[in-house]
Amino acid sequence: MNTFQSAMNFIGRLFIVALFLPAGIAKLTGIEGTLGYFASLGIPAPVFVLVVAIVIEVLGSIALLVGFQTRAVAIIMAIFTLVAALTGHAYWAAPADAVFIAQLLFFKNIAVMGGLFILASAGAGSFSVDGRKAAK
């Protein structure tokens, strides 16, 4: 990967992190509200699911930011994003007045998954921990 591609890859990772890290921190600082939301969705074992979500969003974001185990982390985050889309943005089951927003959020998640799969395919580039390890 050349310098331009590595730079674009790094910027892309920053933008992905800008979505996930604040969401993870918000869950961490608003645990009760998030548990209530998860319960309203009928998510089983909401405490466990919340812990998993926080770990994936916060630690996964940090890993993407520094480019550590990027391919594996991107795949994990893509799967997480699919589950979030299916459980949290099920527009096909939303009330008529909420379909538009739920559909928009669902397909935003699909697009984010696309970016994560591209990242899984390309790796993190030279501006990363993975890139430094590969250069040795």
Mean pLDDT: 94
Question: How would you classify the helix and strand content by structural class?
Answer: mainly alpha
Integer tally of domains: 1
Weakly predicted, low-confidence segments: none
Order of helices and strands: HHHHHH
Shape: globular
Largest beta sheet, briefly?
none
- Count helical runs: 6
Based on CA atoms alone, the radius of gyration comes out at 16 Å
C-alpha termini separation: 15 Å
Helix content range? over 70%
Q: Which percent range describes the beta-strand content?
A: under 5%
The overall strand count is 0
Properties at a glance:
6 helices, 136 residues, mainly alpha, single chain
Give the SSE layout.
Layout: H1 3-29, H2 31-40, H3 46-66, H4 70-88, H5 99-122, H6 129-135
Written account of the structure:
With 136 residues, the protein is an all-alpha fold. It has one domain. The chain has helices spanning 3-29, 31-40, 46-66, 70-88, 99-122, 129-135. The longest helix has 27 residues, at 3-29.
